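Ticket #307: bound-state structure for 6-diazenyl-5-OXO-L-norleucine.
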Amino acid sequence: MNQVSCNEVVSTIYQRVKALKEKGKPANYIPELAIVEPSKFGVHIAQLNDANFGIGDFQENFSIQSISKVLSLCLAYRILGEKIWKRVDVEPSGTKFNSLLQLESDNGIPRNPFINAGALVIVDILISELENPKEDVLNFVKSLCPSGNIDYSPKVKASEKSVGYRNFALANFLKSLGNLDNEPNDVLDLYFTICSLETDCETLSEIFLFMANDGIVPHSGEKVFSKSYSKRVNALMQTCGFYDESGEFAFRVGLPGKSGVGGGIVAIYPDKYSIAVWSPGLNAKGNSYKGMKFLEDFTTETEMSIF
Ligand code: DON
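RESOLUTION: The complex was predicted; output attached.
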């Protein structure tokens, strides 16, 4: 697809989806997310061999929430290697992102690194392995994009921490089942910090471009990890990136991706592009309503999906 037609397709679908009456509801269990303007809508595509393109609110910062779980996993996987899969499994859970249900029968091994229980285990690994976990995670994420335009939001972190009862339950449960080396409160503090990362669609799509490029950061040439690690993380995004809606996302969009309750979604087309969309209204499963609709129309109309 040439650049002109890519920009045209993005613009046409953007206008069509923007006009839809149905837009879902912003997450209301984190007070700071509940007050975000629901009509915000941005899209940005970052390409390996073509120019980038953005439309709408693509340069406005939003809370990336669970999208950060892919970045924590990449850093922990790079440090620990294959040993990481002793602590967390690689199966879709088929349950909500913050479910406690399977942990007991699974003996404290979370089904995958993207459900909250799995992400808490990954954060526990980062605390054990990094000298200055907060700074080191942020520096890693900043190194993935040319602008470095990404930072923690103390406001969102405090907001989530004040009501994060389920995550407190999950961390304590994991500790009791022997799958946290550090204190639950320390793990939760770093978890809420990483979930509070804020950036815009432009930066988010640039950050994830290394996942379309076999693990190599395009602007710096730095190798985050091997092609085979990149394959595995993409496979996890494909099978587990949307929790109990992962099958639906694969069926409708057909790309590896990851959502967050801030209304962001990032999706990867290997060897070609990374695309980020943001619309705060969520569907019943907690994924961006318009974001999913946009991506479904985009891969259908461009016939660019991995299937
Ligand atoms: O732990 C939580 O509930 C949030 N910090 C993140 C959840 C999230 O983004 C799930 N994704 N769709």
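RESOLUTION NOTES: Residues 3-18 form the longest helix (16 residues).
TICKET STATUS: resolved
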